[in-house]
Amino acid sequence: SFKCRDSTLEGMQCRLESSGDLQTSAASCSLPCRPLPRSVRDALSLVHPEVTKRFFGCGLPFPAKLEGCRVLDLGSGSGRDCYAFSKLVGPSGRVTGVDMTEELYIEYHQKKFGYEKPNVTFVQGYMEKLSEAGIQNDSVDVVLSNCVVCLCPDKRAVLQQAYNILKEGGELYFSDMYASKVVPDHMKEDPVLWGEGMGGSLFWQDLIPLAHSGGFSTPHLVSASHIAIYSSELKAKAGDVSFASGTYRLFKLPKSPVVSKVTVTYKGTVADFPDQLDFDSSHCFKKDVAVSVNGEMAAILQRSRFSPDFKIQVSDQPESDSGSTPQVADVLCLPERK
C-alpha cells in the first residue's frame, strides 16, 4: 500500500491494496467513452503489472499531443499514469510525479521504452504546495491529475498552484469526482467517505467559478460517467447526494481576451487523429472543415500547443453568446442548485 496524501485518510486509504478495494465504481470510470488512441493503449500496456495493480483513478486523463512536453502529474500514486506519460512524451519530454509515495520501477520503464536515460522523476510533496516541492513557476506544459483533487481539502490552492507552474498556453487536464450538490460537513468528516473520494467531491457547479478565480479559462468537459455506490452503508451515508466522474481541460491564457468570432480549420496533423480531433464534448474538429468558435476557444487554439495544427481566420463579425459549455450535469442530468 502507499502513503497517505493526508493524515485524515489513515485507516482507510492506507489499507487499500488495489482499486478493487474501493466501494464505488470510481475506478471503472476509467473505461473510455471512445476508443483510446493506439499510442495510449500501447503505453498503458507497457506499464509494470504491479504498478497497474496498485493504481487508483476515476478517469483516463490522456490528452493528445504530449510528445516533447514537460508534464506534471498531481498525486501520482503508484505511478501508472506517470509511466504511460513517459512513453507518450518521448525521450525529449519530461514527466514529474508529485505525491508522498516512493518511486518504483523507473529503470524498468526506461529499459522497456528503450530510452538512454530516464525521463521520469518523483518528488515527495503536496499538490497544494508545489513550490515547496521544488516545482518552478511557468515551467510546465501540461498538468495532469487522476482522481486526487477530491482528496484535498483546499481545492482552490491546488488549482492556483497548477496555474502558477504552467507556462502561458499550458493546460490542466484532469479527471475527478463531482457531487450533485454541496457535500455536507458530516460527510466531509467521515474518514471512509473521504477515502472513497465522496467526502471531498466538489459540487459540479462550483468548478467554473473556482477555475476562473485561479486565472484559468472556462473548464471544458471531455467525458463524464455516473459513479455507482456498491456499499449499502455508504449509500445511506450519501443520502440524496449522487456522484460522477468528470474529465475537464482548462488552459492558462494571456490576460488580453480574444473577442472576435473566429473560424478554425483542423489540418489533421495531431498524431493518432488524422481525420478528426475530438477536443472536448462540444468541439469536434474534422480535417479541412472550417468551424466557427467563440473567442475563448480561439485563444486556446492560438496560444496552446495545438496552434500549429489549425488554420485560424478572424471574422469581422462581433462574437455572439454561444451558450454555456457542457458540464457533468448536462451529461448525467444532475439537479441544478436550488
SSE order: HHEHEHEEHEHHEHEHEEEEEHEH
Q: Stretches where pLDDT falls below 50 for ≥5 residues?
A: 1-16
Shape: globular
Q: How many distinct beta strands?
A: 13
Strand content: 25-35%
Give the helix/strand class: alpha/beta
Query: Could you give the distance between the termini?
Result: 41 Å
Largest sheet: 8 strands, mixed
Assembly context of the chains: single chain
Helical stretch tally = 11
**Helicity range:** 10-25%
Computed Rg: 20 Å
The chain-level mean pLDDT equals 86
Task: Jot down its keywords.
alpha/beta; 11 helices; 338 residues; eight-stranded mixed sheet
List strands and helices in order, with pairings.
Blueprint: H1 38-45, H2 49-53, E1 70-74, H3 80-89, E2 94-99, H4 106-113, E3 120-124, E4 140-146, H5 155-165, E5 166-179, H6 185-188, H7 191-195, E6 202-203, H8 207-213, E7 220-227, H9 232-238, E8 243-251, E9 260-266, E10 276-280, E11 283-286, E12 290-293, H10 295-303, E13 310-318, H11 328-332
Parallel strand pairs: 1-2, 1-4, 2-3, 4-5, 5-6
Antiparallel strand pairs: 5-8, 7-8, 9-12, 9-13, 10-11
